[in-house]
# Entry
Amino acid sequence: MSDIVLCARNLRRSFQAEGEVVQALRGVDLNIARGESVAIVGRSGAGKSTLLNLIGALDRGYDGELRVFGQELKSLPDRELARFRNRQIGFVFQSFNLLPHLSVGENTMLPAYFGSELDDRETRRRAHKLLADMGLDGRFDHPPMQLSGGERQRIAVARALLLEPPLLVCDEPTGSLDAKTSEEILALINGLQQQHGTTVVVVTHDPQVAARAGRIVTLDHGRIVAAPCAEGGA
Ligand SMILES: Nc1ncnc2c1ncn2[C@@H]1O[C@H](COP(=O)(O)OP(=O)(O)O)[C@@H](O)[C@H]1O
Ligand SMILES: [Mg+2]
# Structure
């Protein structure tokens, strides 16, 4: 298996908004290796979420090249793209994106409903284990809305990991959390990355979140800008 998880070459993405063309990405070149943790930073509107949505196979309306696990995403039919996403990628968003009418356990097991090799028993076992790892096992049958923001984000992390995806993408995962809870969530994600060799890409505007990543990529007006000298030298 290749050690390159992601390879982008001259990656461009534009949107039509009210008759105008917005160039959100203007030629991004990026390689990410297996097991790396990468933070994508930059000011609001720089193109961070656009890039993450492409990396996460949520959007493929791009020009240029984008290979994730060797697969050029542009060429995949819708169904296969959904399948690819479900198997290969876990998502954590700022707003948690839990379904309020499902229980904590059902939210965690959701990825399995969209197709997996796991049977119901194994799915349930894994969900219990993940929630226990997150300190939430007693909450399996609770509605998520009874829980705090930090607890909800932990459910979202558990859900993202249910199918053990080799790539985890997070868009402002701590954006709605206080400093202490943010620390806990990041420690969880870091622990997983080290334990399972998961590749992690995190979009953040928080320098403390970025500082935990192995590498920081800065976007400005849809381009990667050269990194300033890293603190700590070579
Ligand atoms: N679906 C869309 N339709 C129109 N414009 C968009 C869309 N998504 C993003 N953009 C524009 O692309 C640029 C980059 O957006 P985004 O990637 O969300 O930035 P960031 O996440 O860095 O704040 C912005 O100018 C934004 O308005
Ligand atoms: Mg964004």
